[in-house]
Amino acid sequence: MQFDINKKWWKEKVVYQLYPRSFKDANGDGVGDLRGIIEKLDYIKSLGIDVVWLNPVYESPNDDMGYDISDYRSIMKEFGTMDDFDALLKGLHDRGIKLIMDLVVNHTSDEHLWFKESKKSKDNPYRNYYHWWDAEKGEPPYRWSIFDKESNAWKYDATTNSYYLHIFSEKQPDLNWENPKVRYEVYDMMKFWLDKGIDGFRLDVIACISKDISFPEMPKTMKAGDWFPYYAQGPHLHEYLQEMNREVFSKYDCMNVGEMSFVTTEDALLFVDEDRRELQTFYHFDHTGVGVSKENFMYADDSNWDLVAWKNIFWKWDQVFAKKGWGTIYLGNHDMSRMVSRFGNDSEKHRALSAKMLHTFILSMRATPYIYNGDELGMTNTNHTEIEKYQDVYTINYYNGLKQKGGDYEGFLKSHATISRDNARTPMQWNQELHAGFTEATPWLAVNKNYSFLNVAEQENNPSSVLHYFRRMIQLRKNHETLVYGAFELVDEKNDQIFAYKRVLDSEVLLVVLNFSDAPAVLTTSLAFSNSHILISNLEQPQIDHFFQPYAAVIYQIQQ
Ligand code: GLC
Ligand code: CA
Q: In the chain, what is the straight-line distance between the N-terminal and C-terminal CA atoms, in Å?
């Protein structure tokens, strides 16, 4: 198939998301740090990835683990110094790896100088950096907050008899993007980092920066999942992104990816159509919601899992970017549970196999792949049901809120255990020594007990490990442009066990077959594939007779 390919370097990269707090502790205080990452640079290079996305490393009181920034231009003390940062950046660049940083600009920490000033008086020069509601007007129209103990996004502050808005925790006041001073402070800060040589940004909750600041009342009958138009995709969003592009992105050869909540396939291109000069890529959440309660998305229920629906989500999104724009693909990050526990099968029998199958998927789709650290090993959930085991503000505050209101806090914890963010934040499992070789001290979040057999050292020595397979799969993507740019087409779309698709570029036709189930499955297609050359598979004999084995993954090169 011939079609125009708009090639760009950032479409061809594989991104490794690195959570610094849990990667490697170099100074023995139980918290990962930049020197720790530097110690592991050769490991990072060995994976074959091209870009590192670093979760926030800026100064922060860590109410939300770095997503509450108190100084955008300095490094969090626990993580090290600016010299350490410069050394890390150089270490990555020396190895041909790019670095993108987290840009958290919907809100700051309440300990940021801007907010401390803003609070002081109504005529403070920083007053309009945030959203204030004068209590003389009465109570502000209700806004729900995901991280607030009382689920209330307005916090009363007696100093000026006003409420301030915080969609996230009360320690994360929302910046007022209507104020050009705020926007230009942000652009300057972005240039500060880009001038240092970083290669771009991942833009945290970027769809929230513009909201309807008349703060209309929300209809009382609405369910949680329908509230979002009141928080995101506000009237000036595109204007601000175009301005950011003009002031910052257009001046550098950098890459960017927006965290795009509440985006639909209909408005997707408004963000990433090259001609509109906004963003290059973003990631949506559509596939992460399958199996999660619609009424209350803090609850998960896997009985709702539906592979056909899931496949159609990817199919639909691929079509959006077939001619313009470009997509991303991921199955895990620091806000989700572990990829293999959520979308594969983390039982002893199927863990390694299903993790390899998921890597085959991520690395054979038409989109820039993102892999979250630890997933290259198939690290799993911890599924804790005791609140004491959690560190995440999200889990802790929601739990406490339910307890106060007399809600079903135990039921919440039971269900939430499978989707809690702390599942993915446990320390990286390096070896079978104390605390998995992550630290010599007590780690800030306990190591998953399975580190004794699930760790980097073991997998390095085991040629059939998930880690080795992951590296092979990355090399395969690099060697076959078809896996990056080739057209995508679902095969046997109604099959509720197998996810199969073709990737086609020029004369190359590849068929990817992935059994997402724990039972053998048959692929129904007119394509003659069974004698085709196999480029990669997670099983020596993935297919026996007509059956694909449980969690089989295989890529065929079809002879035309
Ligand atoms: C994003 C981050 C998440 C954080 C939230 C508030 O969703 O990924 O970790 O808690 O924004 O900044
Ligand atoms: Ca440390």
A: 12
Query: What's this model's pTM, rounded to 2 decimal places?
Result: 0.97
pLDDT tens for 152-176 read 999 999 999 999 999 999 999 999 9
User: Measured from the CB, is residue 69 less than 6 Å from ligand 1?
Assistant: no
CA of 35 to the centre of ligand 2 (A): 8
In angstroms, rounded to a whole number, what is the distance separating the alpha carbons of residues 1 and 24? Answer: 46
- Identity (one letter) of the amino acid at 247? E
Q: Read off the pLDDT of residues 174-197 as tens digits, 9 standing for 90 and up.
A: 999 999 999 999 999 999 999 999
3-state secondary structure at position 498: strand
Q: Is 430 in the pocket of ligand 1 (CB under 6 A)?
A: no
Structure tokens at 12: 């061809």
Q: Are 53 and 20 in contact (CB under 8 A)?
A: no
Residue for token digits 């998927």? 361
Beta bridge partners of 487: 504
**How close is the Cα of 57 to the center of ligand 2, in Å?**
13
Q: Which long-range contacts (CB under 8 A, 24 or more apart) does 95-99 make?
A: 95/41, 95/42, 95/44, 95/45, 96/45, 96/50, 97/44, 97/45, 97/49, 97/50, 97/51, 97/52, 98/13, 98/50, 98/51, 98/52, 98/199, 98/200, 98/255, 99/51, 99/52, 99/54, 99/198, 99/199
Q: Strand, helix or coil at 554?
A: strand
- Integer angstrom CA distances of residue 131 from 139, 162, 173, 350, 390: 14, 10, 8, 50, 31
Residue 246's CB is within 10 A of a number of other CB atoms, namely 12
DSSP labels for 208-223? Answer: GSS--TT-PPPPTT--
| Beta carbon of 64 within 6 Å of any ligand 1 atom | yes
Between 34-48, 50-64, 379-393, 400-414, the lowest mean confidence (pLDDT) is in 400-414
Asked if 410 is an active-site residue, the reply is: no
Q: Dump strand ranges (E) for 62-192.
A: 71-75, 98-103, 132-134, 154-157, 162-165
Residue 540 near residue 527, CB atoms below 8 Å:
no
Q: Annotate 433-490 with DSSP letters as a single string.
A: SGGGGS-SS--SSPPPGGGGTSSHHHHHT-TTSHHHHHHHHHHHHHH-HHHHHSEEEE
Q: What is the mean pLDDT of residues 252-275?
A: 96
Specify the DSSP class assigned to residue 101: E
- Please give the Cα distance from 204 to 67 (Å, whole number): 9
